Amino acid sequence: MITLGLIREGKVPADNRVALTPGQCKMLQKQFPQLTIKVQTCPTRCYTDKEYRMAGIEVVEDLSDCAILLGIKEVPVNQLLAEKTYLFFSHTKKKQAHNQVLLQTILKQHITLIDFECLEHSDGQRIIGFGFFAGVVGAHNGMMAYGNRTGSYQLERVFKQKSFRKLIHAYFGLKLPNIKIGVTGSGRVAHGIVEVMNLMGIIEVEKEEYRSRSFEYPVYVQLKGADLYAHKEEGSYNRDHFHEHPEQYRCLFPLYTSHTDILLNGVYWDQNLPRLFERESIQDSDFRISVISDITDDENGSVPINLGDQSIADPVYGVSRSNLEKTKPYQPGSIDVVAVGNLPNELPRDASRYFGEQLIKFVLPELLDGGSDIIDRATIVRNGVLTPAFAYLHDYATAGSITA
Ligand SMILES: NC(=O)c1ccc[n+]([C@@H]2O[C@H](COP(=O)([O-])OP(=O)(O)OC[C@H]3O[C@@H](n4cnc5c(N)ncnc54)[C@H](O)[C@@H]3O)[C@@H](O)[C@H]2O)c1
């Protein structure tokens, strides 16, 4: 018998997502007779205690009899239960300073940590994530900000729609001006952005057309790796080479800044990758972009005028073209930036259901049956010891003293 627990999210600000919906829990218990699922009581989760109870799932405070615990965000160290197996997004694999104590405590308490972010198919493709709904909400918010800025149309906030299905209805009858939208990226976030573009009836065009002509209707172009980056000397793009040597590449997005009204950014980015444009280039007279939804959302990252995170309640700020400083949104002489790190929380029920479906399809059978390479590769810590693939975290995991 295996008992699996869904923990209450403890990170502040509170996250209202969950790894499995009540219906998914019910279905799993049927499918795996050796499995019992318990849910830790929570007043703010997007699926209520009552919904779990109605699905026949036990709602409890104490999960100490569960062998496996599922969460979403980093678990506060004082809420970790020793010797359990945890699955959540730990954000420790890049030695993130703010989660060092978390990893140290996991080691000390002989916990096994399987990180959702590290669940990959054998070719390195990530298995599970919330990117699609981040793309949906981020694209919507970018379009909403442009409507607010120009007064040419109005879009309500996503969270007021309650579900993706209702959101889609909000797009029927939406009349957009003849704008040009640049969509960057090729992963889950980009898929979510493109979904919204298509639901809004915005036409996709080829990059040459996008740069060379105007249209009598709104259009978007999707720029993937080969469209965005070129080797500094050879001018070519090879995906594997680019991933290994990003510093040898330059970014081609500046070719699009004078043709684009809205940038919806969903690229993968880290410090070694070139930025989409330089900060000062927003001062150029032909820099046409007036709204950027930076869904990738790294401060001073792929979008160098990302000056930090906003909240779901207040998602937009301006950046002055003259002094590059933060302003109120929708000011003349500024560019509006939407930068929110927990976008899927605007559609938490849909995002949770989508996440749970991927978990059920690709992860839980592997976890419950045992002996899985996918699970092994995503295991950062086993019974309090770093696994060989994550031995590079040794210094990070042992430096300083543990305060928790
Ligand atoms: N704001 C939010 O709420 C939010 C939510 C989810 C994701 N995100 C961010 O959005 C970005 C994209 O996420 P996603 O879910 O689309 O990711 P993904 O894993 O689905 O796709 C990433 C894409 O980047 C490419 N890639 C992978 N490794 C790379 C490397 N080393 N160098 C260059 N390219 C590489 C892959 O080929 C893939 O096409 C990430 O930075 C993620 O952190 C933000």
TrEMBL record:
<dbReference type="GO" id="GO:0019878">
    <property type="term" value="P:lysine biosynthetic process via aminoadipic acid"/>
</dbReference>
<dbReference type="GO" id="GO:0005737">
    <property type="term" value="C:cytoplasm"/>
</dbReference>
<feature type="binding site">
    <location>
        <position position="268"/>
    </location>
    <ligand>
        <name>NAD(+)</name>
    </ligand>
</feature>
<protein>
    <submittedName>
        <fullName>Alanine dehydrogenase</fullName>
    </submittedName>
</protein>
<dbReference type="Pfam" id="PF05222">
    <property type="entry name" value="AlaDh_PNT_N"/>
</dbReference>
<dbReference type="InterPro" id="IPR027281">
    <property type="entry name" value="Lys1"/>
</dbReference>
<feature type="binding site">
    <location>
        <begin position="187"/>
        <end position="188"/>
    </location>
    <ligand>
        <name>NAD(+)</name>
    </ligand>
</feature>
<feature type="domain" description="Alanine dehydrogenase/pyridine nucleotide transhydrogenase N-terminal">
    <location>
        <begin position="5"/>
        <end position="137"/>
    </location>
</feature>
<dbReference type="GO" id="GO:0004754">
    <property type="term" value="F:saccharopine dehydrogenase (NAD+, L-lysine-forming) activity"/>
</dbReference>
<keyword id="KW-0520">NAD</keyword>
<dbReference type="InterPro" id="IPR051168">
    <property type="entry name" value="AASS"/>
</dbReference>
<dbReference type="InterPro" id="IPR007886">
    <property type="entry name" value="AlaDH/PNT_N"/>
</dbReference>
<comment type="similarity">
    <text>Belongs to the AlaDH/PNT family.</text>
</comment>
<feature type="active site" description="Proton donor">
    <location>
        <position position="91"/>
    </location>
</feature>
<keyword id="KW-0560">Oxidoreductase</keyword>
<feature type="active site" description="Proton acceptor">
    <location>
        <position position="73"/>
    </location>
</feature>
<feature type="binding site">
    <location>
        <position position="227"/>
    </location>
    <ligand>
        <name>NAD(+)</name>
    </ligand>
</feature>
